Task: structure prediction
Amino acid sequence: MSDAQSYAHHTRWDPLFHFFAIPVFAIAVIWSIVRLFRHFQLHPISSVLLVILLIAALVVVLKSRLNALKVQDRVIRLEERLRLASVLPQPLRSRIPELTEAQLIGLRFASDGELPGLVERALNEKLSQDDIKKSIKSWRPDNFRV
Result:
């Protein structure tokens, strides 16, 4: 598989998280709920506690991933603001605060050469993160994502 990124190939999958941890916890929650209804008369308290415990564990796993992604987005926001301050011409530089978090995150894939034009379009046309990514001609890979 190529390491080259593009709009068609930029999502990052973590096999241990997406294809092992999440399915294992999801199956465990479903199994415990089925067990709760099938064997409620035999072990009502332990069945309910097992369901609650497994749901809590699933929430912890999902929240740990979401928290890491939120921190990553904050770092991207900071990096892109610094990058824009050094790459953009003065009239656009003063408009950096107008960019949304989603727009900044989308712009991280744009090369320095096409960044000024793309920032201007993003601001004037209120482009979404996805629209910005689709507009990029010269893709700048981000290989350090989690």
The chain has a mean pLDDT of 89. Helices lie at 15-38, 44-87, 90-93, 101-107, 115-125, 129-135. Residues 44-87 form the longest helix (44 residues).
